[in-house]
Amino acid sequence: MAIQLECEKILKERGLRITKPRMSILEQFLSHPNALSHNDIEEKILDIDRITLYRTLKSFEEKGVIHKAIDGTDKPKYALCESSCSEHAHHHDSHLHFRCDDCNHTFCIEGVAIPAIPAPEGYHVKGTDIVLNGLCKNCS
Amino acid sequence: MAIQLECEKILKERGLRITKPRMSILEQFLSHPNALSHNDIEEKILDIDRITLYRTLKSFEEKGVIHKAIDGTDKPKYALCESSCSEHAHHHDSHLHFRCDDCNHTFCIEGVAIPAIPAPEGYHVKGTDIVLNGLCKNCS
DNA sequence: TATATTGTTGCAACTAAGATGCAAAAGTAA
DNA sequence: TTACTTTTGCATCTTAGTTGCAACAATATA
Ligand SMILES: [Mn+2]
Ligand SMILES: [Mn+2]
Ligand SMILES: [Zn+2]
Ligand SMILES: [Zn+2]
Q1: Is B33 an interface residue toward A (CB < 8 Å)?
Q2: Which nucleotides of chain C does any protein CB come within 7 A of?
Q3: Domains of chain B with CATH codes
Q4: Integer distance in angstroms from CA A81 to C1' D10?
Q5: Which of A105, A30, A25 is nearest to A60 (CA)?
Q6: pLDDT tens for residues B90-135?
Q7: Which entry of B4, B20, B95, B138 is 20 to 30 Å from A37 by CA?
Q8: Strand locations in A19-123 (E)
Q9: Does A37 lie at the interface with B, CB-CB under 8 angstroms?
Q10: Chain B CA closest to residue A129
Q11: What is the pTM of this model?
């Protein structure tokens, strides 16, 4: 499917109006395999206000279009959600993230089972986030 | 051992001069079981310049006194290192962190083995960070 | 296809986080 | 006590993120 059409489809499905900034931002996510920071996007789309970008990322996250990819750095990064995610629930509890030491890109890794970590004495575990680091496919 | 003496000992061991700000900051780490953010410390020690705090945290980290505790939030938190850590190497690769959903405190968890995560196809894994969340001992 | 309605954008203005240069002050060793 | 070196605190700057608001754009519906 053409990338434009796919963007429109996603925005419509999540009840977001189709606007120029949203289309270009979403296009960035669809055309990059790695998670993107606010800054990454700002550098790629020059004709967009940074406040709009903040707000777009926030509403994308709220509507289940993107999710924060925890990668151990201080700069938040965002990545596309699975199509099953919605305003009400994100459904990728069990995927992990990989940060490349060389290119510094962060990737969502689907299809690797998250092991159950034995709960430390006295703690009640509800969730597990795993961040791997090392060399990505390109940098190996 | 008196807490003052312990602070002095740690600073001397790591080749850091004993100064008033360093003593009070280190005292905070020794007297709290949870990881502390810049802000946590600033609120507790009122007579210290925030720039000095930034620089102290940085040199503590460089000298192996504290380490960054990855906890999935955007605010960096720091926790005491094991005594085996040094300027040249941190030796707590294999401990994990727990963030409490209720009190928002982050704890280092020693003594829970970090499982080997199967490496995703094409990636070369060098390290694993695990962050658990749920309820801590106090909040359970 | 024009209009009403509502959501979105971009700007200004603000707050918070963090870094750097530098002179004065403090710690250490002789 | 002095000489040497590190550390501190201040001023200043940069970057990150938030909020209020008027103008504007997207959609619905007549
Ligand atoms: Mn992800
Ligand atoms: Mn730790
Ligand atoms: Zn890479
Ligand atoms: Zn708690």
Answers
A1: no
A2: 7-13, 17-21, 26-28
A3: 2-134 (1.10.10.10)
A4: 47
A5: A25
A6: 555 678 999 999 999 999 998 888 888 999 999 999 999 999 999 9
A7: B95
A8: 36-37, 66-68, 77-80, 96-100, 106-109
A9: no
A10: B131
A11: 0.89
